[in-house]
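# step 3/5: fold
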Amino acid sequence: MMPTQDAENLKQVKLDFDAECPSCSASIEFNPATGKLTCPYCGYETEIAAPEKREEKVAQEMDFAKAEERGNFNWGVEKKTVICKSCAAETIYDALQVADSCPYCGSNQVMEASAKNTLAPNGVCAFEITDKQAGENFQSWIKGKWFTPRAAKDSAKPDSFKGVYLPYWTFDTKTSSRYSARYGRHRTVTDKEGNTRTETDWYSTSGFYQEFIDDHLISATARYDRNMMRKVEPFNLLNNKAYKPEYVSGFLSERYSIGLQDGWSQAKREISNHLDAQITSKIRWEHHADVVSGLHFSTIHDDITYKYLMLPIWLSSFRYKEKVYRFMVNGQTGRVGGDAPISPLRVTFAVILALITIAIIWYFFMSE
């Protein structure tokens, strides 16, 4: 019997989708190659029903100010029990999981997309790259790694790929920024002895800058290496569909652990860095400036909207000299990102070559 304290952390959830193949009763799943639901055993295919209304075919922008649930989701404690429709087995899952397969009979299961005190996804970018194509892209990627030993390139074979839909927030906002800064223009001065030097004349400026930020992407999961996830971006976010459980059938997927409010806080910091660069470029262009210094600006955000999207990623790894190297492949574009072995000999050679090149350039410069 399950202890009481564990039982309190468990909750039973219903399945949103558990389609059986009408030909052989196996579980059908989404096929990235065709965009249809396919039976992997007998080959049966069926289209995913399209929404009747045109505006329901893609994820709609949601009003940030009206969002009721903005907090993070605690996935360290919460658990849920799922009863398989095919074999009636009960399985305990992490509460973040939205889709998986039954460990007893293998049938695909898509659980409720939302849970208590969580938002439901309103869009999905479906897999377009198959696991075979992901493997081919990986081979091209690792062969292009100059610092990776040849032996690793020749032996690196990815383990079986695992397709997973990861949660992301996107934010739209109209930004209005007032700024002040100093800009400088360089000029060359020649003294009486004929020596030249560069001096900078400084001026003050201020102004107003507006920009509409469209679909700023923020990862909503804390489970995966963020640096690695950035390497497989960007996604084609315009090619999204309104969320339907059929799209995630046959894949792992999880709901967010980084909530809407924390996602927006991170987005504001990144947008601020973007605006800093844009305003600096604006000042340089308007005033024909060589340098910009002391930029200060304040930004107002209006008409903030968001989307909660499920984005496709292939996960895998390979082993080299008893060490495991993990990598990801963008399930939509095929872009690869991850870790690869580094050859100290190749790095040393590159450093020596760079030093020789710098020495040659310095020699010719000093000889003039």
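# step 4/5: annotate
The longest helix spans residues 260-287.
# step 5/5: archive (pending)
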